[in-house]
TrEMBL record:
Residues 358-450 form the Dipeptidylpeptidase IV N-terminal domain. It comes from candidate division GN15 bacterium. GO terms for biological process: proteolysis. It comes from the Bacteria. Belongs to the TolB family. InterPro entries: 6-blade_b-propeller_TolB-like, Peptidase_S9B_N, WD40. Residues 630-649 are annotated as: Disordered. It holds the Pfam family PD40. This is Dipeptidylpeptidase IV N-terminal domain-containing protein.
Amino acid sequence: MRILQATTLFLTLCAVAVTGQETYFGKNKVRYKNFEWNYIQTRHFDIYFYEDAYPTAKFGAAVLETSYVEVSNELNYVIQRRIPVFIYNSPNDFQQTNIIPNLINEAIGGFTEAFKNRVVVPVDGSYENLRHVLHHELTHAVIYDMLFGGAIGAISLQRRIFDLPGWFAEGYAEWSSRFGWDYFSDMYLRDATINNYLEPPEQIEGYIAYRQGQAMIDYLVDRYGIEKLGELLQKGKVHLTMARAMKAALNTTEEEFYKGFAKEMKRRYWPEIARRKEPDDFATQLTKARKDGSFFNEQPVFSPEGDKLAIFTDRRDYTEIVLLSAIDGRELARLVKGERSGDLESLHSYVSGMSFSPDGRSIVFVAKSKGQDALFLFDVNKREIYRRKKFDYRSIVSPSWSPDGKAIAFSALDGYKRDLFVWSIDRDSVRQLTDDRYDDGSPSWVKGSERIVFSSDRPHPGRPAMNSFGHPESDSGFVKPGDFDYGDYNIFEIDLTTLAVTPLEVGPGANRSPSVSPDGKRVAFISNRNGIDNIYVARLDTVEYQAVTDILTGVQAISWSPDGQKMAFQAFHNGCFDVYVMKDLVPAGNGGVLEPTDFAAGKYKQADRPGPRPVAARDTARVDTAAVRAVSDTTAPAQEKASTDTSAVRADVDTTRVAAKDTTAAQTPGESGIVGNDYVYVSKRKHDALDSLMRDVADTAGGALRKEPASFDSIPPATSSGEYTVHKYKVKFTPDFVGGGFSYNTFFGLSGQSFLVFSDYLGNQQIIVGFDLVNTIDQSNVQAYYLNSTKRTNYGVGLFHSKNYYVDNFGYLFSDRFYGFEGFISHPFTTFSRIELVGAEYFIDRRYYDIALGDTRRPRDTRVTVGTLSWVHDNVLWGYTGPINGERAKLSVSSGIDLFNTRNLTFSSVEFDYRKYWHIKGAFSAALRFSGGLSGGRTPKWYFLGGTTNWIGSRDLDSTVYDVENLYFSEVVTPLRGVPYYGLAGDRYGLINAEFRFPMVRLLALGFPLPLVLGNVMGVVFTDVGATWFGNNFKGVATEPNGTQHFKDIHTGFGTGMRLNVLGFALLRYDIAWSTDFNKVSDRPTHYFSLGADF
């Protein structure tokens, strides 16, 4: 996944700056553990790992070097800089990375950061998933190197940047990493085409960019040739937009390209409507995705009584477990509310199911709790969690309660592999059932509680490794990197007494998600053998299996009813997942055999389509064959390790590995290829004077020669036994962003502005420097900060200096020299709550310049020590213009004192802010806010109310605003619309805001006077009630001589407004408000134009 770091890192500084005028919330990225990093080096990559993950790093080395040859060949390009790759041992660890500041949700399987071109991926227990995501992210890294020279920071001073669309970047990444087209994307495009949600290129965003983008890349390669991929990128560097690049490279327009693509999709998929069935043709639909606000209804499981189903759903935005009627889908109860607190940070509904106890009183599910996965036992009747069990595993999925109720089986990531375990509930002991490198999951008990059926990608004895459609992997000629077969899933059974594993004969294809029938005689599972994920049922005592669905899209997560007569499942339809119950378990298709899709039958494959080939057969880019051999050459004799200053380690030998794969290629010195243990490149060109600096690499597509840096040759290969030297990670600061400029003239002297950001490779430490140089240092603005997030408690220190000139409301000129140093400490308890401590010493030197014009004020020097302690809570979800669901709160206590002169400035204050949001339906929502504060001391803090945040317009400020105490230590509280900006002041305040937010304009296309398209324009109706006062002098209601009552210190405004997202990076707000004291309403409204999100 491509992620560009935000260059607006000053937000971090604003959070601790005394001049900040916004109350800051935000969720937390919690470092629940510390990581001690090491790394190994291959020819093109630095691969970072920690703890016992050296075998994973070796596997990654093989995958990356092999995949790099694929990508280099497809794009006709060789990288010019080494690519750093960071491998985290689990998704939970991965979500703690500081390489990017963004919070990482479960849907993100990896990312490539553009500033330093870093690839970051987690291990989830599946080597096939790891292979795929490494290859996927590598494509982004190669493209970044191609377009930006390896790091986007290098283009900070450039004005011309290719706007690479997401559909190409993500689509090509999927196309390359899945070796062209695959059955899963075939399912998605079939659904998108039939249900008419394909998007034109300029409107593609979100997840569809991956799937439709892959299809568009596949179409592009079929129609125009694979060489056009790299050519489009090269043209894009010149023409800056994909539309112009397409015209230059393909001689077509984006509109024509999409028209041809959409026509091809219709030709492919419309005939499938008559061949297969939609899920509601043969099953009862229990959930209504989109209509009820949900998109994901997942992992259904029957209750032991058979009349209820438990499912995961996001119908209320957050993932929850709800209880449904198995008859009509009515919601009977909300059982578990996830993603709101640290105890239930995530319910893992994407990857893990749940299970009822045999008596139906309890449910077991997995949740991430304070950074670590745990099993939760939930009492269905009491609606409460009564037991939480944590294990020392990196992740847990797929809990399954035994028929006798005494144990729970589950799959867990232990070290760098995923195995099966059984937890004895009464004895509170754990037994490990499998212990190997294969991905073992989806355990399902057989009646009697003595056997478990599960899915695994371990080899099936007597049968070669199979691809997704049941054909031997060797048919494609592609050799997967690694010294063992992986990624080809099948169904197995394990005996809990002997731990003997027996393969079940259930037919070809990728067979997953087994569910044993209540009588223990049959097993249902999901297989893609016809090109679509369908439900099959096999007998456990005979070799007999048949399909019971012939669905148009795909099935996931199946569950038997207690009587064995029905089956619940989730199915993909119209871009969402819904839950269905099927009653008639009869053979589908032709006696349980299904007609293959055109893709599964090979009808889409073009004769000249580049398919996966052995890596050694390619010579267009130099591959580190030692890296590939490090995990694939198991027959090489052991040799002594190279002697180095650092240690070399060797992975434990896996006794289940298969014979080494043949990676030989050209064997004569007259051509390039692998000779013995080395890759030999034989150049066809004469000597070049630059050969000492660059390495030639053949370019067969273009007939030219590209060059790899000679520095790549300085990296020693792996030893003959396939081992690498392991290096310790050392902190080294390198630039993330550098920008600015300088000028000089004889009158003003030297001037310039610069902004620099440095960080280490892990993103744990940052140095931020910004300065605005004007003639001399004492006239310049300078900020320098150091931020450290290495451990759970984050901290930062910094210093600053600024010189500002002001003209007050009397027209007098004065200046403030504002400088000092500050520090902060932030300790997150969970993703949703933290405490913050900010301390600073501020110096303010004020000088007045209009003495001759009557300004009699004397110079003033102020020294103030300020400290603030805050508690912050935030679990909101965001909509188009602001939070749409959840709540956030902040409570702060602060104090300031001049330690040099206690009679100068002294204050203390307490402030609170609570906000609650309700998502009504679709884009409709409501928001309510309560906030208040009070201050005391010799010079109490003032609170200014009125207007709206980031108001665009003139300000008529009172002279008191320019007092040192108010200019630097006051709080401006908004919104209070209907009242002028800074219109109210006091050392106490209270504010209530209520808003109803709704969609105003879905889509508006203008042809004149400007061709402008506006979408998702939001509207708002609001009421603001606020008051300020000094001390105890508050009078809420006043009575006129005629007896009429009205608000006095309480001010109220009401009105309406609209919100427009401008070009995707700025939110423009317009509000029109009237003020009222509940006796009369203002004659004229106040108009507000402002920028920023809603509160």
